[in-house]
Amino acid sequence: MDRTAQLTSRSTEFEIAYDPPGSSDSLHVRAARVLEANWTGRATVPSRSLYPHQWSWDSAFIAIGLRHVSPLRAQTELETLLAAQWADGRVPHIVFNPSVPLDAYFPSPDFWRSSTAGHTAGAPRTVQTSGIVQPPVHALAAWLVHHADPETSRSRGFLARVYPRLAAWHRYLLHRRDLGGGGLVSVVHPWEQGMDNSPCWDAPLARITPAPARSFRRADLDHGAAEDRPTDLDYGRYVRLAADYRNAGYADGQGEFAVEDPAFNALLIASEHALARIAEELGATGTARHARAERLTAALVERLWDPAAGMFLCRDLKGGGLIQERGVSGLVPLLLPGLPRDLVGALVRTLRGPHFSLGDRTRLAPSYDLLGEAFDPHRYWRGPAWFNTSWLLERGLRAHGELHLADALRAAVLHLADTTGFAEYVDPYTGEACGATGFGWTAALALDLHHELHQELVKGAREGVSSPATGTFDTSDKGGDRR
């Protein structure tokens, strides 16, 4: 199908009600209201109720959407996060708001004890943070934010100020976290990878002795249904890993959990390419960074690609070998421009095939294998579909010329984000809202895709094409046959 045909196609199942960004009832306005409600003055919380602090990769995704509302605020979002960076280069996964009560979220600042337990690693003294990290989306976000308003960015010296911090962040990951010696970065806690409760972690976590249930109180259950959240057993293991890491002074390579994850490394590679472009914008050369990104891509293929699975898998460095579980993390490398074409084709087939069934039985890509024994359409990262992974997949599909599938995925994201009140995540079959509503990155990434659609509409009008692509996914409830 050629591009003009795609731009004029209309779904027989549904059609995105497209409103110009300025209209009072547009998705743009509704998403912007969510971001305004979650804004604290210097940063945006993911959710006022469930996540009342600043989260690392949330802020990167939020900045990507904020750039369409206020480029200055998007810059501030990233600057606030990076101001809490440790001297060793790590960007902590939570920056705590001191005005929020300690019992509003666990683990709280008094658990992490960053300024004391993290002293040797150079934790800041003036702000409390966690001691673990999250996926490095930040350089990609900074580059996109710069392009939203290059004049303001240059006048404020935005890129010049964040570049050294982003470079130090990447240096930390590449030098301190290559625990397998093969060039890839390892995560030392499931929370670092961002897909906290994925079945991909079950085997490595099974070796961990959980912390006693009486030693912590789960604040998350005050705001979410227990059947949708991690089990007490898994949570006890998360707490044990975090406490052991803290007690070791946040030194890397000593713990019982070390996993090379495809999404974490793919996002580092994408951000290395972005950091190269930032260097070029600042008058330096980006050649070495582009070359490093290519080497990392080769290492990703060598260490994590599984031809039989038709996707990337996680590697358990403590247990040895690839973890034979299919998570959406293994599809995220579609984002990479240097991925071999045959691997791109295999990933697209896997995405559309029975394990993820995108465009057939599922509205958005599930977070875990539909055919896996641990699949649960509602439990946190064990099956539900998330909007940030859909945004990454849409971007990857579009970059590799899979425009029809990208258009349809974009349409589904916009429809479900809007109709669920910008839910944290959804049932992949029915689109039912799960978790928190008014969720920061859902609103931000819907805003970004809405802006992209508007740009296509404008371009199409100039070229004499009457309507943008709306996609062809069937959004009817197909939840009856879930296996």
UniProtKB/TrEMBL annotation:
Query: Annotated region Disordered: where?
Result: 460-483
Q: Establish whether keyword Magnesium is in the entry.
A: no
- List the Pfam families hit by this protein, alphabetically: MGH1-like_GH
Which residue intervals define the domain Mannosylglycerate hydrolase MGH1-like glycoside hydrolase in the entry? 51-442
* Keywords of the record: Glycosidase, Hydrolase
Q: Which residues constitute the signal peptide according to the record?
A: none
Q: Does the keyword RNA-binding apply?
A: no
Superkingdom as given in the UniProt entry:
Bacteria
Please name the InterPro entries in this protein's record. 6-hairpin_glycosidase_sf, 6hp_glycosidase-like_sf, Glycoside_hydrolase_63, MGH1-like_GH
Can you tell me which family this protein belongs to? Belongs to the glycosyl hydrolase 63 family.
Please report the name of this protein according to its UniProt entry.
Answer: Mannosylglycerate hydrolase MGH1-like glycoside hydrolase domain-containing protein
